[in-house]
Amino acid sequence: MTNAHSLPAPPVAARRPRTMHTHDDVRVDDYFWLRERDNPDVLAYLTAENDYTQAVMAHTDARQKQLYTEMRGRIQETDLSVPVKHGDYFYYTRMEEGKQYAVHCRKQGSLDGAEEILLDQNQLAEGQEYLRVGVFEPSPNHALLAYSVDFSGGERYTLYIKDLRTGELLADAIPNVFYSVEWANDNATLFYTTQDDAWRPYKLLRHRLGDDPANDALIFHEPDDSFWLGLSKSKSQSYLFFGAGNMTTSEVYFIPTDAPDATPTLIHPRQRGLEYTVVHHGQRFLIVTNDQAVNFRVMEAPVDAPGKAHWRELIAHRPNVKIDRIEPFRDYFVLHVREEGLKQLYVTELANNETHAVDFPEAAYDVWGHENPDFDGTQLRFTYTSLVTPDTVFDYDMQTRHREQKKQKVVLGGYDPARYETERIFATAADGAQVPISLVRRKDTPHDRPSPLLLNGYGSYGVSNDPDFNSNRISLLDRGVTFAIAHVRGGGEMGRPWYENGKFLHKKNTFGDFAACAQHLVDQGYTSPDLLGATGRSAGGLLMGAVANLRPDLFKVIIAGVPFVDVINTMLDASIPLTAVEYEEWGNPNDPQFYVYMKSYAPYENVEAKAYPHILATAGLNDPRVQYWEPAKWVAKLRTLKTDSNRLLLKTNMGAGHGGASGRFDYLEEVAFEYAFLLELLGVTVE
């Protein structure tokens, strides 16, 4: 094993710098060679980094085990999801004590019926280092099951069809299927999307059971490498919707599910900057669109004349309310919106056009709707959670406005939410923007002096980093660590303009907002730079890399999970999975304006000879979203240039992808490792 004091070094033969010329700018990449996935020197280097990380952290093994035991001890290992009624069947999943994966089951007629096991993921995982089930779709007559599996973390799934009457697999195994699969109503036809070499879902195909998948009919091919395909079925089960889109533009087609051979009908052709989604309600389609509405509005159009010329406004745009989606029921609409940074649900009764809001009790929370397959019913099922409230499933009667708690996630070990407090405060960014911060801590955490604090951030793709519950965090909170979320621009928390002001040529707002939140927490006495940790994953890892360069003095520890830090090199290489699709988020550096701006913040390009915080970076060898070499190159460059003696570790999962370990207990080992790293460096004892 590598000695804890000896740094891993690449073999001399592997050191092959690459000189690159872009827009009359010359860059020398000393670690370009790390992209050579099949090069034994690269694998040896990654292994050496892992050995070094293990050696450096060996003295924390007991702490890691204690943290793991704590976190696992909060899990009710034998558990059951709330059953969902489809037709005459109740579908649910259950977890069994000591097992890593879910068991998918159903009962017919009533919950008192006999259990039928449809798919046991634990059996699928036998002999595998990794398992992820992508789609799980029973046929309309409930006789067949379409499901897909990935055994590498590379997110290329194989689709299988199981006969639920006999338990046998059909011969119809279809490789390279993405996350979209839907049945036609004939129970014999499936639609699915496949990926190109850049992991982009680009083809929609139709498969008939018993046919050779090589002969499946091509329904749609998206040639534009900045667009990808999605597929869904209407709640009414009457239409299949598929759409091509990127982050700014979309177009949607539909096929009647009773006529799977029908030619798809286009609702409105792609128009740059115009986004829309479609749901079915009776004789009309309901369309959520940003047409003349930055925060979106709702239109309606006849099914037999759905083109934009026939769109009529149903729900007007409101500048301070972002409409995420509309959920149709026969007699109700549910509008899912974001208002003042928080999600809201508005229910409209169609008979009298009366609208009411579903009320929620806490100042900061998260809520999301479930499948709600009963189109004719009055029941709305949703999950409510907050930084102190475990996930709680409610059935809400839209007619009586009565809610029934169906299940709250059990947290073992004596968890009492009354011991904790949450706050929602605001930091002022450099340009005056008010950036929300959600935080949670134990009530007995000292208020008269700075305390250890972990600040989390994301801030990309318009994704909202909402304040939800995570029982693992109790291991931090009970040791006096405050947990906070910086709701920075680039996310969607404060509406579409919040996202627009954190992308393209405004991306630096994301980094400045995070630094402003950290500074505010210091200035207000919540914490101090020697007690402050920061963490983010993926695009949130880009944020970590950027603030490490921008304000290394503000943070004691940074944990960057699968970080997107090699921005310029990745965005200049369209052969890398998903690069072209990302042009609508980051810009295309083949444009000199975007190149110059991107280079000014790209973490890898801006590593300097200066002191940095303690840093832990993680990677997945099979990650198709952020290639393993991005954190590997970043760490290598930091090792060469940084002037401090702070800890710098790279931990690569050699058998997983973007999400890390797939098993629920294996994943806890990764969390325990990160917590042990954080707590030690913040001076917090684990015992």
Q: Could you walk me through the main structural features you see in this protein, from its secondary elements to its overall organization?
A:
The protein is α+β, with helices and mostly antiparallel strands. Among the domains are: 12-72 and 414-681, Alpha/Beta hydrolase fold, catalytic domain (Rossmann fold, 3-Layer(aba) Sandwich), CATH 3.40.50; 325-409. The strands form 8 sheets. The chain has an 8-stranded mixed sheet with strand order 31-32-34-33-35-36-37-38, with helices on both faces. α2 (61-73) packs across α12. The longest helix has 18 residues, at 664-681.
Number of helices: 12
Q: What would the principal axes of the Cα set say about the shape?
A: globular
For the record, what is the CATH homologous superfamily label of the domain at 12-72 and 414-681?
A: Alpha/Beta hydrolase fold, catalytic domain
Distance between the termini: 28 Å
Strand content: 25-35%
CATH 2nd-level architecture of the domain at 12-72 and 414-681: 3-Layer(aba) Sandwich
Radius of gyration: 25 Å
Oligomer: single chain
Approximate helicity band:
10-25%
Strand order of the largest sheet: 31-32-34-33-35-36-37-38
Low-confidence stretches: none
Secondary structure: number of strands: 38
CATH topology of the domain at 12-72 and 414-681: Rossmann fold
Which secondary-structure class do the elements indicate? alpha+beta
What is the CATH C-level name of the domain at 12-72 and 414-681? Alpha Beta
Mean pLDDT comes to 95
